[in-house]
Amino acid sequence: MAAGAVKLSELVAAPGCGRVFTEPPVRPGLADCAPTGRVRLDALARFVQDIAYADADEVGLSRRAAWVVRRTRMRVERFPRFGELLHLATFCSGLGRMWAERRTTVSGDVAGEVEVVSLWVHLDPLSGRPTPLSDEEIAMWGESTAGRRVTARLHHPNPNGTEDSFPWRFRATECDMAAHINNAAYLQPLEEELLAGDGGELESIDVEIEYRSPAQPGEKLVLRDGDRRWIVSPEGETHASLLVATLNPS
């Protein structure tokens, strides 16, 4: 699929200096995989958000702020498989006044190879409003950015006269501790399409998702226009948009 006019978020290389955080390998289980054994996109998103929290927690900064994801690009060169040991490494690749960019690599011990970049907004844990990063946070994660600055600007267009659609329902069990639908669940409608098409077996994919407004459990609508998707409420509020830049069946 063509990427259209929207430029995808940059996947910068690993830093020559600064903090790079790793954890013991993750082994995808039965609930993480499609019937073919391919690890699903929403499972990969959960792994990525969990290591981001673990990075902050290890250095005692996990309670200083609430981080909310604004945009994620996931480029899967080769999908990890069921039972494959996955090695995750993450680092800060850019800073803004009230947001930061995080790069994560997922490498399998057999074939899996995934590159992810996410933009996270830095929120005050009490007010829930964006707040500047602290000096301690900048000191911890700033060196790996090599001075690279990022913005929180969204790039995807709004839906405009899209008629192709299908219904979707978010469940209460998909809410996270912020009391709204977790970001990983927004990839499930795309997975539903993939699974309905050819059983979900893919070699690679490059997808970017932007989060517009938090969703609550209930009925939604997924609008489709070529390589674009929008998850909207029945009233027309856009919760998220997706751009599927490449899709290669195996």
Name the average pLDDT. Answer: 94
Number of helices: 3
| Order of secondary-structure elements | EHEEEEHEHEEEE
For the largest sheet, list the strands in their spatial order: 1-3-4-5-2-7-10-9-8-6
How much helicity do the residues have?
Answer: 10-25%
The name of the CATH architecture of the largest domain is Roll
Low-confidence stretches: none
Description:
With 250 residues, the chain is of the alpha+beta class. It folds into two domains: 21-145, Roll (Thiol Ester Dehydrase, Chain A), CATH 3.10.129.10; 164-249, Thiol Ester Dehydrase, Chain A (Roll), CATH 3.10.129.10. It has three helices and ten strands, in the order βαββββαβαββββ. A ten-stranded antiparallel β-sheet has the order 1-3-4-5-2-7-10-9-8-6, covered by helices on one side. It is globular and about 50 Å long. The two termini are 15 Å apart.
